[in-house]
Amino acid sequence: MKSANAAPCGLPRPPRLPDMEARPELASGEVKHLQRCINDLISLLALPAVWSGGDPSQVLHTLLDALMRMLRLDLVSVRLTDPVGEAAPVEIVRLAELRGPMPSAREICDALPQCLENGSRKWPPLLRNLMGEGDVSIVPLPLGLQGELGVIVVAAQRADFPQQTEALLLSVAANQASIGLQEARLLSHQKRVASELDQRVVQRTAELAAANEELKKELAERKRVEERLDKARLELARVARITSLGVLTASIAHEVNQPLSGIITNASTCLRMLAADPPNVEGARETARRTIRDGNRASDVITRLRALYGKKDPTIESVDLNEATREVLALSLSELQKNRVIPQPELAHDLPPVAGDRIQLQQVILNLLRNASDAMSTVDDRPRELLIRTEPDDNDRVRLSVRDVGIGFETQAADKLFEAFYTTKNGGMGIGLSVSRSIIERHRGRLWAMPNNGPGVTFSFSIPCSLESLTSGRNRDIRTSGVTDAA
Amino acid sequence: MELHWEKRVTERPLVSVVDDDESVRESLPDLLGEFGFASRAFSSAEEFLASDCVDQTRCLILDVAMPGMSGPELQRELKLSRREIPIVFITASREETVRPRLLEQGAVECLFKPFSDTALLEAVNSALHLNPK
């Protein structure tokens, strides 16, 4: 690949300059002229470095100054047209010498093309007073490939203008100007686009800020609505509780009357033993002891009932669902027996504790039991069996299911079951299941109903054992108190 | 102890108590003892039926609501097997309709828990009067 005259290092050898001394036929004036021409050429070629980053009028001013300096010109003018025709053309004129008031650059630029068109060797009338009557050579230099950028016009009152070297310099100058102008225009276009972009960014930022503000407002509004909803739910829960209290009075009375009966019987026996002759002190002591024990039992029942129906802040604790279920069963046993329901607890032995509010969970269980019992109130052709099962569930959860053999529900009603005020019972308010579901969801769990293969329905809920999922942020939410059914 | 009990049975009328509530099973026999009756307590109707006391019992103090066989069901069962024992029902329920219905079906009395010792004594005496044996 190396050419014959390539340097050993691989770089091309600089071209050999003509040896001026070896060419005596070249006149020394001509040599100087050529040297000046080369210097001018180098100056013109260096112009883009000066223009870098400048605008079109700066390009033209420096170019016109350079041409006036290099060539003996009497006039140089430029008219730069706007590419989209929006702005007025840029017009600049340089005159070698001024002998009177100068017309405007526009007037000069308008006058020059006429001279070019009719091939006049005279200045246009406008300039004759300033420039004189002598012959003039006027040369146009189109800018751009087809003069679409504009035109430079140069003029000199010399018969030999333009000489060959001058023509060369002019054409190089026009080329350089074209390139410089294109670049300057591109740059200014880019600047304009960038500034438009900046503006749009500013505008969009403002729009986004406004949208953000709007969103914040919406969120605040939504929060307010949710709080109102929570309050309404709480109120509903209380109403439901009061309603169900009437129904539960019987079972409360039952629970309290049992130990009361023991108390009165024991106290009566005690009195009789003391009144005997001789008094049966040992027997009296025993019955008095039993009286106290039964009194405590009654007190326990009241405490349990108060916990279940009283107003109490929910507390998150570790809850043994089996124990909670047994308590609810004990409380509702008489009610179930009255309805001839046979409860069949199947409580898993290895059940891990769950995290939650014990009272709320018990209210859900009670609600499910009573719903199941109510669903079987018209069943007479089969035992009214009520299965209550607890079992460990997947993903560190515990499941509780309540299965009845009752009238069941129609498949299309399955979705509605958990809606507030939906009820299939006479006299039911239809909020038990909806509140139950909200309680279970607040425990990060799920409550659902499935028709059995045989008669009846199985209601189940599944809640996580881990305390962490509840204490991380949801603790407050669970404070919406629950309820039992309003059947 | 067993011998002593047998003796009491022969000398004093046997009053049996059937109730699923433990405090009733504990307290009533002592009171009945103070009244001068022999007594035995059972936690369910089934347990009573399976015992050897059915025929010796001269008065039955019977809880209404129990798991398994209820008080009224036991009453029917006894009637069907022609072993009619005068029954004093006791119940912790407050339902007013219960008492007339039970009396209609032949019960001597229906006492609402908690009841007084005199009310119980009256009821048991009426039962024994019906069933002097």
Give an overview of the whole structure.
The complex is a heterodimer of chains A (about 475) and B (about 130). Chain A is of the alpha+beta class and about 475 residues long. Helices cover about 50% and strands about 15% of the residues of chain A. The longest helix of chain B has 14 residues, at about 20-35. Chain B starts with a helix and ends with a helix. The interface between A and B is medium-sized, with 31 and 25 residues.
Q: What form of chain B results from the Cα inertia axes? A: globular
Q: What is the oligomeric state here?
A: heterodimer
Main sheet summary of chain A: 5 strands, mixed
Give the overall average pLDDT of chain A. Answer: 80
Q: Extract low-pLDDT stretches of chain B.
A: none
Order of helices and strands of chain A: HHEEHHEEHHEHEEHEEHEEH
Class from secondary-structure proportions of chain B = alpha/beta
Q: Tell me the Rg of chain B in angstroms.
A: 14 Å
- Could you state the order of secondary-structure elements of chain B as H and E? HEHEHEHEHEH
- How would you classify the helix and strand content of chain A by structural class? alpha+beta
Helix content of chain B: 40-55%
Fraction in helix of chain A: 40-55%
How large is the share of residues in beta strands of chain B? 15-25%
How many beta-strand segments of chain B?
5
- Work out the number of β strands of chain A: 11
